[in-house]
Write a structure and sequence with these properties.
With 261 residues, the protein is α/β, with parallel strands linked by helices. It has seven helices and ten strands. It has a six-stranded mixed beta sheet, with helices on both faces. Strands 2-1-4-5 form a four-stranded antiparallel beta sheet, covered by helices on one side. Strand 4 and strand 5 form a beta hairpin. Helix 4 packs antiparallel against helix 5. It starts with a helix and ends with a strand. It binds adenosine-5'-diphosphate (ADP) and magnesium ion. The site of magnesium ion (MG) has 4 residues, from helix 2.
């Protein structure tokens, strides 16, 4: 995307956000709904006989349709916590709840359904397939989930949805580009669009700007904020860069395996 069109989109979205963000956020007097919560979460890794405790009893509450940033120094356990929230790994102790339902002890297949339908994940590295176009990369999770025949039956609808998401993240003019033809910010926005193809309710992001310069990083942050507003997404982002938490609704600090008060 050219700097001009990005700036134009940004200006429009800023103007919109100023008008809309307060309206889209529940007033303070309304009790907010907790989307995710952890209770006494503990996780250690083992190096030989040595036990390395990483999370030492973490209690957090993530509000629905809000932007929560978890900040902490490198090695403080942010990725570990995000992986636990995403049910990619299991805690040693404690509980994780999603929409008031305990999820850390679900059978593997139910966890997979949660990850496919409710959670979208993005990482520092984009993991785009270099031979595929932007549009095709966004469609990959659909192909994987559906299998060939079902995917082919739904292809028109999926392509329409993928195009709409790519337009929303400002990549409507990059549908047929390959990753090598994109900027870092555009690649990450493609990865974000891919995470949204299954219409998740929660977006879990691990250092999504970690590989980007300031300009591309703020492009990605603006996109995440726009998605929170437009799709009422619950966003949980972890980062070592406290500056990235600037516009968050809630900031949680991880220090030494615990939430700092
Ligand atoms: P952060 O994302 O905040 O940088 P991590 O959650 O990645 O922190 O890691 C926290 C600590 O746990 C670090 O000391 C790291 O070396 C250790 N660690 C992370 N993953 C593993 C693993 N799979 N095996 C052993 N140690 C790990
Ligand atoms: Mg990490």
């Amino acid at each position: 995307m050219s700097k001009f069109s990005m700036a134009a989109q940004q200006a429009a979205s800023n103007a919109q956000s100023n008008a809309q963000s307060d309206a889209s956020r529940p007033p303070l007097s309304v009790v907010r709904k907790t989307a995710m919560a952890t209770h006494g979460l503990k996780k250690s890794y083992h190096k030989g006989k040595l036990e390395v405790p990483v999370l030492k009893g973490v209690d957090i509450e993530i509000e629905e349709a809000r932007f929560t940033t978890i900040v902490g120094q490198s090695g403080s356990g942010k990725s570990t916590l995000l992986h636990l929230l995403a049910t990619l790994d299991a805690p040693d102790d404690g509980e994780i709840h999603y929409n008031d339902q305990r999820i850390d002890n679900l059978p593997a297949r139910k966890k997979e359904t949660l990850r496919n339908q409710e959670f979208g994940l993005i990482f520092q590295f984009y993991h785009l397939l270099p031979e595929l176009t932007t549009l095709e990369n966004v469609l990959v999770p659909r192909m994987v989930q559906d299998g060939v025949f079902r995917y082919l039956g739904n292809r028109r609808k999926y392509r329409q949805t993928a195009t709409e998401i790519l337009e929303l993240v400002g990549l409507g003019h990059r549908l047929t580009h390959k990753p090598s033809e994109l900027s870092g910010g555009e690649m990450q926005r493609t990865a974000i669009a891919r995470a949204l193809i299954s219409n998740p309710r929660v977006l879990l992001a691990d250092e999504p700007t970690g590989n980007l310069d300031e300009e591309n990083g703020s492009e990605v942050m603006n996109t995440l904020q726009l998605l929170r507003r437009e799709k009422n997404l619950t966003i949980v982002m972890v980062t070592h860069d406290a500056g990235m938490a600037r516009d968050s609704d809630q900031i949680i600090r991880l220090v030494n395996g615990k939430v700092a008060s």
